[in-house]
Amino acid sequence: MDYAVLRKRMVDSQLVCRGIADARVLGAFYKVERHKFVPEELSANAYADYPLPIGENQTISQPYMVALMTECLSLNGQEKVLEIGTGSGYQAAILAELAGEVCTIERFSALAQRAKVTLDELGYVNIKVKAGDGTLGWQEEGPFDRIIVTAASRGIPSPLIEQLKEDGKLIAPIGESFSQILTVAQKKKGKLETTGICGCVFVPLVGKYGCYA
Q1: Rounded distance, CA 213 to CA 131, Å?
Q2: Least confident range of 75-84, 112-121, 202-211
Q3: Which of 130, 147, 150, 213 has the smallest CB count inside 10 Å?
Q4: 3-state class percentages of the chain: helix first, strand second, coil last, to nearest 5
Q5: Could you give the CA distance from residue 160 to residue 171 in angstroms, rounded to a whole number?
């Protein structure tokens, strides 16, 4: 199977035609081998236009959603990024191609370990992986220029707001458990100014500051 051809087709037919225009973002998607981040038995579907299961009732998001969230972060290559919800590690790999450093937290230790092995095998040296409660953020590594939350809640956990730098950006799916709005927030004078991007559906954000209890 020619994964390079499938990867190019994914970018051209799923991302470019839907308006993803940042050349650096598209370059990362051309490069990162998505099939390395899904279960082997699903590798033939790795570049398809839908989410795939990765274990622990979690998924690797649809490529377009990963690209949209990444583009909304407006990365220039120098940022320190916090990701909440490592999952397979695919989003972290995309971020690592575009930012200076990525810190990523996964609540399922088995997924965190699997992602770390994959990312290490692929040679990423600017990613730190931690198993734990993502709603607490990663205080020892903060503050962060960007934060990306790949699970849904009714609001943004206060520790994440505190760990976001002034003028920093955060993106998260905000809303009810079965329907959310992908939301970009920028920190101005300690407060978040938010903009809704589009409707979406993500798995719930679970933890001390999760909002679906």
Answers
A1: 21
A2: 202-211
A3: 213
A4: 35, 30, 35
A5: 11
Q: Is 188 exposed, middle or buried, given 0-12, 13-18 or 19+ CB atoms closer than 10 A?
A: exposed
Q: Which residues contact 132 (CB under 8 A, 6 or more apart)?
A: 105, 106, 107
Predicted structure pTM score: 0.96
The set of catalytic residues is 61
- Identify whether 143 is preceded by a cis peptide bond (ω within 30 of 0): yes
Using CA atoms, how far residue 156 sits from 66, 108, 163, 192, in Å, is 19, 20, 12, 10
Look at the chain and count its residues: 213
pLDDT of residue 211: 73
Please give the Cα distance from 146 to 160 (Å, whole number): 10
Q: Which phi and psi angles does 149 have, rounded to 5°?
A: -115, 120
Secondary structure class of 204 (helix, strand, coil):
strand
C-alpha span between 131 and 75 (Å, rounded): 25
